[in-house]
């Protein structure tokens, strides 16, 4: 991509796909700001490149900005790329030209970066293969998630839940405790007229202490009249003083459901 041929008012769009590696290679040193970088599965930076694996919860059509500032440019100048989540397509590498050095020099650097990106892609595929090869509790053990107490769980009922609207209710749930995390699975019924999709999860312990590293899924909405499961996990080191847990799940609109006073198993 030659920036000298791009309109200043035009924002280039790049297709990305969750689980697939995408890389940018620049023809000179640059700094990069990646919108919502904390969500990404992996980000690797070089002086003139950046490679990343998009967020695992990336929704089709979701758009994230990637802002580039070249070291030789004034501070107020920069280039913005729009990363667009696509359900099938992915752009693995984007070569960005910004100056007038010889093509031979540029291509040599690009070939070196391309080989490096290919090596990272192979390492990523190898890692995915190892994780898929081991399932169930063995996978948890290999990831260091099982301690001496192994995996514990506790079932709880609908009396623990309250909702902002009567259209949401919980039938049952399970609380899990592993060596490095806690997790909650809820069965939620949507009796309303609109789909309900979780966009925010908050897990709080010990009178207001929010847990970090929140992950939740699936990303699909629970349709009207249907019952769906929602799984939420957060980091919690072994021995951390966790007493009563409170979980709140919210949509983009006003509807939310809260489960209170969950005692760890």
UniProtKB/TrEMBL annotation:
<dbReference type="InterPro" id="IPR011754">
    <property type="entry name" value="Mxa_paralog_2268"/>
</dbReference>
<dbReference type="Pfam" id="PF09544">
    <property type="entry name" value="DUF2381"/>
</dbReference>
<protein>
    <recommendedName>
        <fullName>DUF2381 family protein</fullName>
    </recommendedName>
</protein>
């Amino acid at each position: 991509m030659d920036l000298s041929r791009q309109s200043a008012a035009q924002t280039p769009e790049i297709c990305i796909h969750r689980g697939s590696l995408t890389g940018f290679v620049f023809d000179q040193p640059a700094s990069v700001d990646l919108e919502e970088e904390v969500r990404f599965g992996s980000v690797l930076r070089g002086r003139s490149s950046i490679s990343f694996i998009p967020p695992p919860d990336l929704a089709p059509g979701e758009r994230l900005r990637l802002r580039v500032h070249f070291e030789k440019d004034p501070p107020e100048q920069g280039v913005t790329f729009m990363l667009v989540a696509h359900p099938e397509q992915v752009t693995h590498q984007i070569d960005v030209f910004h100056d007038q050095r010889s093509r031979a020099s540029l291509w040599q650097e690009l070939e070196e970066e391309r080989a490096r990106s290919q090596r990272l892609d192979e390492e990523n595929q190898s890692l995915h293969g190892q994780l898929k090869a081991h399932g169930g509790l063995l996978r948890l053990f290999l990831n260091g998630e099982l301690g001496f107490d192994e995996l514990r769980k506790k079932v709880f009922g609908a009396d623990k839940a309250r909702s902002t609207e009567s259209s949401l209710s919980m039938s049952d749930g399970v609380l899990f405790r592993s060596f490095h995390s806690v997790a909650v699975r809820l069965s939620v019924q949507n009796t309303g007229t609109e789909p309900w999709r979780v966009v925010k999860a908050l897990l709080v312990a010990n009178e207001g202490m929010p847990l970090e590293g929140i992950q939740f899924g699936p990303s699909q909405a629970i349709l009207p009249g249907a019952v769906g499961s929602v799984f939420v996990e957060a980091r919690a080191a072994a021995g951390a003083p966790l007493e009563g847990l409170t979980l709140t799940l919210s949509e983009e609109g006003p509807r939310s459901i809260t489960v209170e006073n969950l005692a760890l198993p």
